[in-house]
UniProtKB/TrEMBL annotation, chain B:
Residues 422-541 form the Glucose-methanol-choline oxidoreductase C-terminal domain. It comes from Sphingomonas naasensis. The keyword Oxidoreductase applies. Residues 18-334 form the Glucose-methanol-choline oxidoreductase N-terminal domain. This is GMC family oxidoreductase. Its cofactor is FAD.
């Protein structure tokens, strides 16, 4: 029986881990690259930044009559995406914006971003949105996009905030909105 | 290995699947080969029916992965939920860098592009088969609409095509299942457009998604999920897995081999026949030649052309199948990337329930019904739809969240697909020294759109805007992207069919002039490309060729 060359190499990667000789690592990659799963392969945020991301994501998509960003796992999604799914340069505007917000929070409120009150956090986000912080608008647009994406691809976003319709079974091109008052999701 | 198979089918996509079904049902023992990985119907659709949070990286393609492995496939709608069906561009490269830009968007699994196709299904018109001759462009088709009409009937009834009867000469009706309904806004656009721009029609899409069950095939009608690209366990649309593979397997005469890369065909110049197919195992890289009495080459237009070109006369760079000198030439793709959109006033109490695949269609209206002198030949059609997207409130917080529970207004958008003429010097060739990991010379593309195509797109943009404005849509805008051949994933030609063996690779039965036991029934055979989506025509041509080939075999001619 011929040993599958790729399987043999994959076994070696498992044995030697990160210390694997580079040419062997490259040969093992002669198959489709996988999509990273699980926790971030590298931390993107400091503890303070992570706490700020958590607090600010909840202010962008707060808990109302449905759960908000924290319950939906948005902060972890953002760190995972920036660690493993986005380009390394995509981290820069987020990290820079978090630092600018933190500096402003310390200056205005004498506390870290996550320790500020919700109203103060809203004020900080508004400053970013109106580009009154260094890199503010760039941060706000991208951070807001991350929160919205993470939220509406989460189980809570799909099944609670929206009307989950996995198998519609039929098509009605003139369905009254008043019968759902929500947006359908899949 | 003894002559174990009566026929080898290379490729398992739209054409290969049909070849396997027809040949096995007519009694032949068939080996079907595909270079891609095995995907079984249902169980092989890893993400069918899954919400985003159960798909890797929330079904958003990581940028690093796109850049490393899917830099061409990204133009063909690859995502984490369907990427098993796509070619890995890093592992399987081609060489357009030294020629002209071309997107060769390829599948990577058994079933080929039947798992990733758009499923819009149209018959060609009589005019489509006659235009080359009338205009003295390219070469005359050796067949006419009447030759193919019964085969369109045959495949449509089997696969199930939904659509509306319209009695249009430029777009003959199929044997339809009932159409998918237009939504309230599309009906409004249809009424206004047809009233304000007489002679133009906006019709239901014609789609291989079914509106009636086919119990005998174990297939259900469309469930309006619109996740076709991840594989449909309901079997609601045509794919090899759902339709032709089960039929071929039911005969007990099919052997299917995945991960089987065909490098070339072996040929005996004395008998003028293909003697075998050289196959490289994609996993072990071991090569073998499998003898064949009959070969159906259905590897896709460009891959079939590549295999033909790589079947070389010993000591020569010339193909056994290129006596005419036309092999690799007259490569075409539909030109698109012109989009027109506008807002539809009113009807905001209504939304769509269910996610309908497809949409609506504006059939070709240029250079039909005697129109001429408009600055370009042939024509284009528009594919479009009306929909309401979730509202996009600005800001953040509870008010934004609440605002996102509503829908925005109705919008209508459509894109033009135009016919590209056959040009002798739009060609593909084998790279002189670069080979892939199986030792097969890389394809090199030298294909460009010309003035006729670009004028046609300008006209499509102008006319599209005019029509939508006249119909009463608001804020009508248009855009035009880069026109890259291959981008429409309707690449065709390279081994065209015609009557004269000095000017074509194949005859009117899709049969090689240089080898009576070789049939090429995918897009490679096309001598022109109409402006309508091509797959249905490949199915009809394949079924017709299979019928002819088996009759020839039984008569002892093959």
């Amino acid at each position: 029986m011929i040993i599958d060359r790729r399987d043999a190499l994959a076994g070696m990667v498992a044995m030697f881990g990160a210390g694997l000789y580079a040419p062997i690592a490259r040969a093992a990659k002669a198959q489709a690259t996988g999509i990273s799963d699980g926790p971030p392969s590298t931390p993107v945020f400091s503890a303070q930044q992570r706490a700020a991301v958590t607090a600010l994501s909840e202010r962008v998509m707060p808990t109302t009559d449905t759960p908000g960003a924290i319950a939906a796992g948005v902060p972890a999604f953002i760190e995972k995406l920036l660690a493993d799914w986005a380009a390394p340069e995509d981290r820069k505007p987020i990290l820079a914006g978090l630092d600018a917000i933190e500096a402003r929070s310390q200056q205005d409120y004498k506390v870290a971003t996550d320790k500020a009150t919700p109203a103060q956090q809203d004020a900080l986000l508004t400053l970013a949105m109106e580009d009154k912080l260094p890199g503010g608008e760039d941060f706000f647009d991208k951070f807001r996009q991350l929160v919205i994406t993470g939220y509406f691809t989460s189980e809570i976003g799909i099944t609670q905030e929206r009307e989950y319709l996995p198998v519609p079974g039929r098509y009605d091109g003139a369905y009254p909105y008043s019968q759902v008052n929500k947006v359908f999701s899949s | 290995m003894a002559d174990k198979f009566d026929a080898i089918v290379i490729g398992s996509g739209v054409s290969g699947g049909w070849a396997a079904k027809e040949l096995t049902e007519k009694g032949l023992k068939v080996l079907m080969l595909d270079r891609g990985v095995m995907v079984e119907h249902g169980e092989g659709y890893d993400f069918d029916g899954k919400p985003a949070f159960e798909i890797p990286s929330r079904d958003i393609m990581p940028k690093s992965l796109v850049d490393s492995d899917y830099f061409i496939a990204k133009h063909g709608y690859v995502s984490p939920g369907n990427r098993k069906f796509y070619n890995n561009d890093r592992l399987n490269p081609y060489a357009y860098g030294e020629g002209e830009k071309f997107y060769w968007i390829r599948p990577g699994a058994v079933g080929g592009k039947s798992l990733i196709w758009g499923r819009w299904s149209f018959r060609w018109s009589p005019e489509d088969f006659e235009a080359n001759k009338r205009e003295q462009v390219g070469i005359d088709w050796p067949i006419r609409y009447e030759d193919l009409a019964p085969w369109y009937d045959y495949v449509e009834k089997y696969i199930g095509v939904s659509g509306s009867r319209e009695n249009l000469p430029q777009l003959p009706d199929s044997a339809f299942q009932p159409p998918m309904q237009m939504n309230i806004a599309e009906k409004w656009v249809k009424g206004r457009l047809e009233a304000t721009t007489p002679g133009r029609k906006l019709i239901n899409t014609r789609l291989s998604n079914m509106t009636e069950d086919k119990e005998a095939q174990g297939r259900s009608k469309c469930q309006f999920r619109n996740q076709c690209g991840r594989g449909c366990s309901f079997g609601a649309y045509f794919s090899t897995q759902a339709v032709t593979l089960p039929a071929a397997r039911a005969t007990g005469r099919l052997t299917l081999r995945s991960d089987a890369v065909v490098s070339n065909l072996e040929y005996d110049p004395k008998t003028k026949k293909v003697t075998g197919v050289r196959v490289v195992d994609a996993k072990t890289k071991q090569a073998e030649v499998i003898p064949a009495r009959l070969v159906f080459l259905c590897a896709s237009a460009m891959a079939s052309t590549q295999i033909l070109m790589n079947s070389r006369i010993p000591g020569s760079s010339k193909s056994h199948f290129d006596t005419s000198g036309t092999l690799g030439r007259y490569v075409m793709d539909h030109i698109f990337r012109v989009g027109i959109s506008g807002e539809i006033p009113g009807m905001t109490d209504y939304i769509e329930y269910g996610r309908r695949p497809g949409g609506v269609y504006i059939p070709r209206f240029r250079n039909v019904g005697g129109e001429e002198g408009i600055g370009f030949r042939r024509g284009y059609g528009y594919q479009g739809s009306a929909r309401r997207d979730p509202a996009q409130p600005v800001g953040f917080g509870a008010s934004m969240k609440q605002g996102m529970r509503k829908y925005g207004g109705w919008k209508f958008g459509m894109g033009a697909f135009g016919e590209c003429l056959p040009y002798e010097d739009n060609r593909v060739s084998l790279h002189a020294d670069k080979v892939d990991r199986f030792g097969i010379p890389l394809m090199r593309f030298d294909v460009t759109f010309r003035e006729n195509e670009l004028r046609m797109m300008r006209d499509a943009r102008t006319e599209g805007e005019k029509m939508l404005r006249a119909a009463g849509l608001l804020n009508v805008t248009s855009d035009e992207g880069e026109h890259v051949p291959g981008d429409a994933i309707h690449e065709m030609g390279g081994a065209r069919m015609a009557a004269d063996p000095r000017q074509s690779v194949l005859n009117k039965w899709s049969q090689a002039h240089d080898a009576a036991n070789l049939f090429v029934t995918d897009g490679a055979q096309m001598a022109s490309i109409s402006c309508v989506n091509p797959s249905l025509t490949f199915m009809a041509l394949t079924a017709r060729a299979a019928d002819y080939a088996v009759k020839q075999m039984k008569a002892g001619a093959i």
